[in-house]
Design brief:
The chain is of the alpha+beta class. It is built from 20 helices and 12 strands. The chain folds into 4 domains: 63 residues; 130 residues, no CATH class; 114 residues, no CATH class; 171 residues, no CATH class. The chain is 47% helix and 10% strand.
Length: 622
């Protein structure tokens, strides 16, 4: 029998004597850890690839010589001689590709930058290395023979999830398997197939594997044919996508109720359906070195300034990153990425995009991003709402003025309260000052700490309500705000005046239409609070002056953020005061559009004619 002493000695023995662990050690990825031992030098890998290509060509040449010797001994006919001639031409083309200079160039470049070979086997080997086939079993390589004269070895490469298999079977495989009368060969085979055999809408020829990778990753099918130093890219996109829904952020009562989706093709169609202009251009610019993503640059060719379009394309082409995720494109192309003030307008509504395209701006639509970017942008466009033009001018102007007042209150109201209470109590009427002092009589904290705690609590509630999914998030924000405000007032921790100030500030911040502008105002509110607590109204005024200097120095693609105020340009009728739509004859002068005039002086021509005439009247001169 064991007693407490022997049990204690046994426990001490287990603690002191080492025993190997029974469970396997956990995985730890150490810094600089190499997988699979020491890798061979890149030079040896390149030389091995060159020798392998030469060896495969030698074997193919040997097979051709044996086939030619057998055919010539049997006295071949015209068709057999033609087939041998086609094989000889393909071997000569492959022999030219295997020159030492070209092999050295191909080994020094990345696989995606390599040119497509005339050998089908070499092309499929490159495809297997690029897509990690067959480990990546979601990529399909379908080999077949085109029954031409002579027969042609071919292969299709596509992605299972992104391509439409029905289109591939009916529009590519069936026509090619029945294509017997093909006169062209070599590089001209693709033109012959497209013009006579392939019932497809959109095709393009590629000469390098970068275009092949981009096509496969977007859902297209790539056709390789032996003897052709190129590939045919065939549009077969057929992946699932999110349906068109109502806007989640820019909700409006009147106007278009459609929002962008995550699919670039659908987003372009939404814009073109809203603005049916023949010169509405959508240039596709590929982005990302590894994770390829297409970006559509949309503009009105007869209106947009060519220098602006060229600058947008220049910045997009100069982005060097492996992957451009949705929401990050703005940070790659904006002029001042270190300043939190938004310099590019972001919207999820197609009708808002078309309105800015008509003014001469450029829209950027990234595949996978349900928001469009509009450049250049000004501070006033960020404060405008998509619903402004659906309202009459007096109502629209009033709503814009209301938003400006709300923005000022959201940024300055708590700091003004602190500055007046601390340094300038004489600025308030005596009755109001006594009421504030009576409300704060039993509060143990200074006013600055009161406001700071309530502002931080409001930010906590706002962040929590945005992270909780569904309707529960809205309930969390409402219940949290009510319970928190009531509890702190009842416990004499926060004065009722402070709760009112913070509540009015929160309501004012909700009136700002652009979420990113609201974020900047919420952040600047804390800076104004500190300035007010240190220097009073002088500190608030100094910080306003500093902020005005910074904002006035910002530019968005060559246009000042404060355009139409600083510097002064010709008014466009759509800044703060919203002019009637029939009175906005000119486009914004800050954009320097090709066509300055938007509409004639009298756009309501019916008002210039007699109703008894029954006609539209003669057009007015511009």
């Amino acid at each position: 029998m064991s007693n407490p002493l022997t049990a204690a000695l046994a426990a001490l023995k287990k603690l002191l004597i080492y025993r190997p662990p029974s469970s396997p050690p956990p995985f730890v990825l150490e810094e600089g850890q190499e997988v699979g031992g020491t890798a061979p030098p890149p030079v040896l890998i390149r030389r091995a690839g060159e020798l392998g290509a030469l060896l495969r060509h030698a074997r193919r040449l040997q097979r051709f010589m044996n086939e030619a010797r057998t055919a010539l001994a049997a006295k071949p006919g015209p068709d057999a001689i033609k087939a041998l001639q086609a094989q000889a031409e393909a071997l000569e083309k492959r022999q030219a590709e295997l020159s030492p200079l070209l092999l050295a160039y191909a080994g020094a470049t990345r696989r995606e930058d390599a040119n497509i070979s005339a050998s089908l086997e070499e092309n499929l080997r490159t495809v297997a290395k690029l897509f990690r086939f067959p480990a990546n079993d979601r990529i399909v390589v379908r080999r077949f023979v085109i029954p031409a004269n002579p027969p042609l070895d071919a292969a299709l490469v596509f992605s299972k999830e992104l391509a439409d298999k029905k289109d591939i079977n009916s529009s590519i495989l069936l026509p090619l398997l029945g294509a017997k009368k093909i006169a062209a060969g070599g590089d001209g085979i693709f033109a012959a197939l497209v013009s006579r055999h392939l019932p497809v809408n959109d095709t393009a020829e590629a000469r390098d594997f970068r275009a092949v990778v981009r096509a496969v990753t977007v859902g297209d099918t790539v056709l390789f044919v032996d003897g052709a130093a190129g590939a045919l890219l065939i549009e077969t996109e057929g992946y699932e996508h999110r349906a068109i829904s109502r806007p989640a952020i820019e909700q409006t009562i009147r106007g278009n109720q459609s929002a962008f989706t995550d699919t670039l093709r659908i987003n372009i169609s939404l814009v073109k359906r809203s603005f049916r202009a023949a010169d509405l251009v959508a240039d596709i610019v590929p982005l990302g070195a590894r994770g390829h993503a297409d970006c559509a640059v949309m503009y009105l060719a007869s209106v947009a300034n060519p220098a602006l379009v060229a600058e947008v394309k220049r910045r997009l082409a100069a982005i060097s990153s492996d992957y451009i995720s949705p929401g990050t494109l703005e940070q790659f192309i904006e002029d001042h990425p270190g300043i939190p003030v938004p310099q590019i307008l972001s919207t999820e509504k197609p009708d808002r995009v078309t309105a800015h395209l008509a003014e001469g701006r450029v829209a950027l639509l990234l595949d996978g991003d349900p928001f469009a970017l509009i450049v250049p942008s000004t501070l006033f466009t960020l404060l405008h709402s998509p619903e402004d033009f659906a309202l009459k001018p007096p109502v629209g102007t009033f709503m814009r003025l209301l938003r400006l007042v709300a923005a000022l209150l959201a940024a300055l109201l708590p700091s003004l309260y602190i500055a007046i209470v601390y340094y300038h109590p004489e600025a308030l009427p005596t009755d109001l000052l006594l009421a504030i002092a009576g409300a704060r009589e039993r509060i143990p904290f200074p006013a600055f700490l009161e406001v700071l705690v309530m502002e931080l609590s409001l930010e906590f509630v706002r962040e929590a309500s945005s992270r909780v999914p569904g309707v529960l998030g809205e309930a969390t924000g409402i219940v949290g705000g009510i319970i928190l405000g009531q509890a702190v007032v009842t416990a004499n921790l926060i004065s009722p005046v402070t709760v009112v100030i913070v509540a009015v500030t929160a309501l004012a911040s909700f009136s700002i239409p652009d979420y990113r502008v609201g974020m900047v105002i919420r952040q600047s509110r804390f800076a104004f609070l500190v300035a007010a607590a240190l220097l009073g109204l002088v500190g608030v005024a100094g910080l306003i002056f500093l902020g005005a200097l910074v904002v006035c120095s910002l530019k968005s693609f060559g246009v000042s953020i404060m355009a139409q105020l600083a510097p002064m340009v010709k008014p466009g009728g759509d800044t703060i005061v919203r002019a009637p739509v029939y009175g906005q004859e000119f486009r914004p002068d800050a954009l320097s559009p090709l066509d300055r005039r938007r509409q004639p002086t009298v756009s309501r021509k019916w008002s210039q004619t007699d109703p008894e005439d029954g006609g539209g009247g003669a057009g007015d001169e511009l």
